[in-house]
Amino acid sequence: MSAPYTQTYGARAQNFSNPTARLILETMERKKSNLAVSVDVTNSNDLLSIIKAVGPYTHIDIIEDFEFSLIKQLQHLSREYDFVYFEDRKFADIGNTVALQYSAGVHKIVSWAHLTNAHPVPGPSVIQGLSSVGLPLGRGLLLLAEMSTKGSLAVGSYTEEAVRMARQHTDFVIGFIAQRRMDGLALQPGEDASGEDFLILTPGIGLESKGDAMGQQYRTPHEAVFESGSDVIIVGRGIYGTDPKAVDKIAAKAERYMAEGWAAYQARLGHQI
Protein backbone atom coordinates (compact mmCIF):
# COMPACT_ATOMS: atom_id res chain seq x y z
CA MET A 1 0.00 0.00 0.00
CA SER A 2 1.36 3.44 -0.92
CA ALA A 3 2.20 5.92 1.82
CA PRO A 4 -0.70 8.30 2.57
CA TYR A 5 1.34 11.38 1.66
CA THR A 6 1.68 10.14 -1.92
CA GLN A 7 -2.10 10.51 -2.34
CA THR A 8 -3.74 13.74 -3.47
CA TYR A 9 -4.58 16.37 -0.88
CA GLY A 10 -8.26 15.80 -1.54
CA ALA A 11 -8.00 12.06 -0.94
CA ARG A 12 -5.96 12.57 2.22
CA ALA A 13 -8.67 14.75 3.75
CA GLN A 14 -10.52 11.52 4.52
CA ASN A 15 -7.60 10.33 6.65
CA PHE A 16 -8.29 12.97 9.31
CA SER A 17 -11.10 13.31 11.83
CA ASN A 18 -10.06 16.86 12.73
CA PRO A 19 -12.13 19.51 10.87
CA THR A 20 -9.19 21.89 10.44
CA ALA A 21 -7.01 19.21 8.85
CA ARG A 22 -9.76 18.40 6.38
CA LEU A 23 -10.35 22.10 5.68
CA ILE A 24 -6.66 22.72 4.94
CA LEU A 25 -6.36 19.77 2.57
CA GLU A 26 -9.62 20.54 0.79
CA THR A 27 -8.67 24.22 0.44
CA MET A 28 -5.27 23.34 -1.04
CA GLU A 29 -6.90 20.93 -3.50
CA ARG A 30 -9.54 23.51 -4.46
CA LYS A 31 -7.11 26.41 -4.88
CA LYS A 32 -4.26 24.30 -6.32
CA SER A 33 -1.88 25.88 -3.85
CA ASN A 34 0.29 24.57 -1.01
CA LEU A 35 1.72 27.99 -0.16
CA ALA A 36 1.49 29.55 3.29
CA VAL A 37 2.63 33.15 3.62
CA SER A 38 4.15 34.08 6.97
CA VAL A 39 3.56 37.80 7.47
CA ASP A 40 6.01 39.23 10.02
CA VAL A 41 4.98 42.89 9.95
CA THR A 42 4.11 45.15 12.88
CA ASN A 43 1.53 47.45 11.29
CA SER A 44 -2.08 46.38 10.72
CA ASN A 45 -2.39 48.25 7.41
CA ASP A 46 0.71 46.48 6.09
CA LEU A 47 -0.76 43.17 7.25
CA LEU A 48 -4.04 43.78 5.42
CA SER A 49 -2.21 44.98 2.31
CA ILE A 50 -0.20 41.76 2.07
CA ILE A 51 -3.25 39.59 2.76
CA LYS A 52 -5.15 41.26 -0.05
CA ALA A 53 -2.18 40.59 -2.34
CA VAL A 54 -1.68 36.91 -1.55
CA GLY A 55 -4.52 35.53 0.64
CA PRO A 56 -2.17 33.82 3.15
CA TYR A 57 -2.08 32.01 6.40
CA THR A 58 -0.76 34.62 8.85
CA HIS A 59 -0.09 35.51 12.49
CA ILE A 60 -1.04 38.51 14.58
CA ASP A 61 0.75 38.85 17.94
CA ILE A 62 3.50 41.23 16.72
CA ILE A 63 1.04 43.87 15.48
CA GLU A 64 1.80 47.09 17.36
CA ASP A 65 -1.54 48.81 16.62
CA PHE A 66 -3.69 45.75 17.29
CA GLU A 67 -7.40 46.25 17.93
CA PHE A 68 -9.90 43.41 17.99
CA SER A 69 -11.77 45.05 15.12
CA LEU A 70 -8.83 43.89 12.99
CA ILE A 71 -10.00 40.32 13.55
CA LYS A 72 -13.33 41.12 11.91
CA GLN A 73 -11.47 42.32 8.84
CA LEU A 74 -9.27 39.22 8.82
CA GLN A 75 -12.28 36.93 9.05
CA HIS A 76 -13.93 38.75 6.14
CA LEU A 77 -10.77 38.37 4.02
CA SER A 78 -10.56 34.67 4.87
CA ARG A 79 -14.04 34.16 3.44
CA GLU A 80 -13.45 36.44 0.45
CA TYR A 81 -10.16 34.89 -0.65
CA ASP A 82 -10.78 31.33 0.58
CA PHE A 83 -7.81 30.80 2.87
CA VAL A 84 -7.10 29.52 6.38
CA TYR A 85 -5.39 31.29 9.28
CA PHE A 86 -2.37 29.72 10.95
CA GLU A 87 -1.34 31.63 14.08
CA ASP A 88 2.36 30.85 14.51
CA ARG A 89 2.19 31.35 18.27
CA LYS A 90 4.60 28.59 19.36
CA PHE A 91 3.00 27.96 22.75
CA ALA A 92 5.46 26.56 25.30
CA ASP A 93 4.06 26.50 28.84
CA ILE A 94 2.04 24.34 31.23
CA GLY A 95 -1.48 23.31 30.26
CA ASN A 96 -3.46 25.80 32.28
CA THR A 97 -1.32 28.73 31.12
CA VAL A 98 -1.49 27.91 27.42
CA ALA A 99 -5.24 27.37 27.64
CA LEU A 100 -5.59 30.94 28.91
CA GLN A 101 -3.11 32.32 26.36
CA TYR A 102 -5.02 30.58 23.58
CA SER A 103 -8.53 31.59 24.60
CA ALA A 104 -8.28 34.88 26.49
CA GLY A 105 -6.17 38.04 26.64
CA VAL A 106 -6.10 40.66 23.93
CA HIS A 107 -5.83 38.38 20.91
CA LYS A 108 -8.34 35.57 21.71
CA ILE A 109 -6.52 33.36 19.23
CA VAL A 110 -8.82 30.36 19.37
CA SER A 111 -11.79 32.50 18.27
CA TRP A 112 -10.36 33.15 14.79
CA ALA A 113 -7.21 31.10 14.04
CA HIS A 114 -7.97 27.72 12.47
CA LEU A 115 -4.50 26.39 13.26
CA THR A 116 -1.76 27.10 15.78
CA ASN A 117 1.43 25.42 16.99
CA ALA A 118 3.33 24.53 20.15
CA HIS A 119 6.75 23.43 21.33
CA PRO A 120 6.67 19.93 22.87
CA VAL A 121 9.10 21.03 25.62
CA PRO A 122 6.42 21.17 28.39
CA GLY A 123 5.30 17.61 27.60
CA PRO A 124 1.76 16.37 26.88
CA SER A 125 0.18 19.02 29.13
CA VAL A 126 0.73 21.66 26.46
CA ILE A 127 -1.45 19.62 24.09
CA GLN A 128 -4.05 18.94 26.77
CA GLY A 129 -4.31 22.61 27.68
CA LEU A 130 -4.68 23.83 24.11
CA SER A 131 -7.02 20.99 23.20
CA SER A 132 -9.36 21.83 26.06
CA VAL A 133 -10.32 25.08 24.32
CA GLY A 134 -9.42 24.37 20.69
CA LEU A 135 -10.90 20.96 20.06
CA PRO A 136 -14.52 21.96 20.84
CA LEU A 137 -14.20 24.60 18.10
CA GLY A 138 -12.69 22.16 15.62
CA ARG A 139 -9.26 23.79 15.71
CA GLY A 140 -5.99 21.99 14.96
CA LEU A 141 -2.47 21.97 16.41
CA LEU A 142 1.00 21.47 14.98
CA LEU A 143 3.98 20.44 17.09
CA LEU A 144 7.39 21.93 16.35
CA ALA A 145 9.33 18.75 15.67
CA GLU A 146 12.14 20.43 13.73
CA MET A 147 13.21 23.98 12.92
CA SER A 148 14.98 25.56 9.97
CA THR A 149 17.57 27.54 11.93
CA LYS A 150 21.23 26.56 12.08
CA GLY A 151 22.11 24.78 15.34
CA SER A 152 18.49 24.01 16.31
CA LEU A 153 18.18 21.65 19.28
CA ALA A 154 14.99 20.14 17.85
CA VAL A 155 16.71 16.99 16.59
CA GLY A 156 17.10 13.33 17.51
CA SER A 157 15.21 12.19 20.61
CA TYR A 158 13.48 15.58 20.90
CA THR A 159 11.90 15.13 17.47
CA GLU A 160 11.03 11.51 18.20
CA GLU A 161 9.26 12.44 21.44
CA ALA A 162 7.24 15.08 19.59
CA VAL A 163 6.00 12.37 17.25
CA ARG A 164 5.12 10.05 20.13
CA MET A 165 3.14 12.83 21.79
CA ALA A 166 1.28 13.55 18.57
CA ARG A 167 0.23 9.92 18.20
CA GLN A 168 -1.55 10.11 21.54
CA HIS A 169 -3.64 13.13 20.45
CA THR A 170 -4.47 12.68 16.76
CA ASP A 171 -7.91 14.21 17.27
CA PHE A 172 -6.22 17.60 17.81
CA VAL A 173 -2.57 17.31 16.69
CA ILE A 174 -2.77 17.20 12.90
CA GLY A 175 0.90 17.53 12.00
CA PHE A 176 4.28 19.12 12.52
CA ILE A 177 6.50 22.02 11.72
CA ALA A 178 9.34 19.99 10.27
CA GLN A 179 11.83 19.63 7.44
CA ARG A 180 10.78 16.09 6.42
CA ARG A 181 8.11 13.41 6.87
CA MET A 182 7.51 12.20 10.43
CA ASP A 183 5.36 9.19 9.45
CA GLY A 184 6.61 5.97 11.04
CA LEU A 185 9.27 7.67 13.17
CA ALA A 186 9.97 6.50 16.74
CA LEU A 187 7.59 3.55 16.74
CA GLN A 188 7.14 1.56 19.92
CA PRO A 189 7.34 -2.27 19.75
CA GLY A 190 4.15 -3.60 18.19
CA GLU A 191 3.00 -0.22 16.81
CA ASP A 192 1.78 -0.12 13.22
CA ALA A 193 2.10 3.20 11.40
CA SER A 194 1.34 1.95 7.89
CA GLY A 195 -1.68 4.25 7.56
CA GLU A 196 -0.31 7.14 9.59
CA ASP A 197 -0.76 10.58 8.09
CA PHE A 198 0.43 13.89 9.52
CA LEU A 199 0.60 17.23 7.74
CA ILE A 200 4.11 18.63 7.37
CA LEU A 201 4.48 22.42 7.16
CA THR A 202 8.00 23.50 6.30
CA PRO A 203 9.48 26.95 6.95
CA GLY A 204 12.78 28.19 5.56
CA ILE A 205 11.73 28.19 1.90
CA GLY A 206 13.52 30.48 -0.54
CA LEU A 207 14.27 30.68 -4.25
CA GLU A 208 16.97 33.33 -4.28
CA SER A 209 18.75 32.96 -0.94
CA LYS A 210 20.27 30.07 1.03
CA GLY A 211 20.19 31.85 4.40
CA ASP A 212 20.32 35.08 6.39
CA ALA A 213 22.49 36.70 9.06
CA MET A 214 20.25 35.37 11.84
CA GLY A 215 20.91 31.68 11.17
CA GLN A 216 17.94 30.94 8.92
CA GLN A 217 18.61 28.27 6.28
CA TYR A 218 16.58 28.12 3.07
CA ARG A 219 15.57 25.31 0.73
CA THR A 220 13.64 25.42 -2.53
CA PRO A 221 10.00 24.31 -2.82
CA HIS A 222 11.16 21.30 -4.86
CA GLU A 223 13.59 20.22 -2.16
CA ALA A 224 10.95 20.52 0.56
CA VAL A 225 7.89 19.08 -1.22
CA PHE A 226 9.25 16.59 -3.73
CA GLU A 227 12.43 15.43 -2.01
CA SER A 228 11.42 15.66 1.67
CA GLY A 229 7.66 15.13 1.48
CA SER A 230 6.47 18.45 2.91
CA ASP A 231 2.80 19.32 2.39
CA VAL A 232 2.90 23.10 2.85
CA ILE A 233 5.73 25.53 2.12
CA ILE A 234 5.94 28.53 4.46
CA VAL A 235 7.39 31.64 2.83
CA GLY A 236 7.77 35.07 4.41
CA ARG A 237 10.33 37.65 3.35
CA GLY A 238 10.90 35.85 0.05
CA ILE A 239 7.46 37.13 -0.97
CA TYR A 240 6.92 40.52 0.66
CA GLY A 241 10.56 41.61 1.11
CA THR A 242 11.04 44.96 2.80
CA ASP A 243 8.11 46.83 1.24
CA PRO A 244 4.68 45.47 2.29
CA LYS A 245 2.97 48.12 0.16
CA ALA A 246 4.44 46.90 -3.14
CA VAL A 247 1.30 44.94 -3.88
CA ASP A 248 2.03 44.07 -7.52
CA LYS A 249 5.52 42.73 -6.72
CA ILE A 250 4.19 40.77 -3.74
CA ALA A 251 1.44 39.19 -5.81
CA ALA A 252 3.92 38.24 -8.55
CA LYS A 253 6.29 36.61 -6.09
CA ALA A 254 3.46 34.78 -4.38
CA GLU A 255 2.31 33.46 -7.74
CA ARG A 256 5.83 32.21 -8.46
CA TYR A 257 6.15 30.38 -5.14
CA MET A 258 2.64 28.98 -5.54
CA ALA A 259 3.52 27.61 -8.98
CA GLU A 260 6.82 26.12 -7.76
CA GLY A 261 5.20 24.48 -4.74
CA TRP A 262 2.33 23.03 -6.75
CA ALA A 263 4.68 21.73 -9.46
CA ALA A 264 6.74 19.93 -6.80
CA TYR A 265 3.55 18.38 -5.39
CA GLN A 266 2.43 17.26 -8.84
CA ALA A 267 5.85 15.71 -9.43
CA ARG A 268 5.55 13.85 -6.15
CA LEU A 269 2.27 12.39 -7.34
CA GLY A 270 4.04 11.27 -10.51
CA HIS A 271 2.25 13.67 -12.81
CA GLN A 272 3.90 15.14 -15.88
CA ILE A 273 4.58 18.86 -15.43
UniProtKB/TrEMBL annotation:
InterPro entries according to UniProt: Aldolase_TIM, OMPdecase, OMPdeCOase_dom, RibuloseP-bd_barrel
Domain of life: Eukaryota
Annotated Pfam families: OMPdecase
NCBIfam families in alphabetical order: pyrF
Keywords per UniProt: Decarboxylase, Lyase, Pyrimidine biosynthesis
List of catalytic residues: D88, K90, D93
UniProt-listed PANTHER family: OROTATE PHOSPHORIBOSYLTRANSFERASE (PTHR19278), URIDINE 5'-MONOPHOSPHATE SYNTHASE (PTHR19278:SF9)
Protein species of origin: Gymnopilus dilepis
One example GO MF annotation: orotidine-5'-phosphate decarboxylase activity
Signal sequence residues: none
All residue ranges annotated as the Orotidine 5'-phosphate decarboxylase domain in the record: 34-250
Protein name in UniProt: Orotidine 5'-phosphate decarboxylase
Protein family membership: Belongs to the OMP decarboxylase family.
EC number: 4.1.1.23
Enzyme class at the top of the EC tree: lyase
Pathway in which this enzyme or protein is active: Pyrimidine metabolism; UMP biosynthesis via de novo pathway; UMP from orotate: step 2/2
Gene Ontology BP, a term: 'de novo' UMP biosynthetic process
Binding site for substrate: D40, S148, Q216, G236, R237
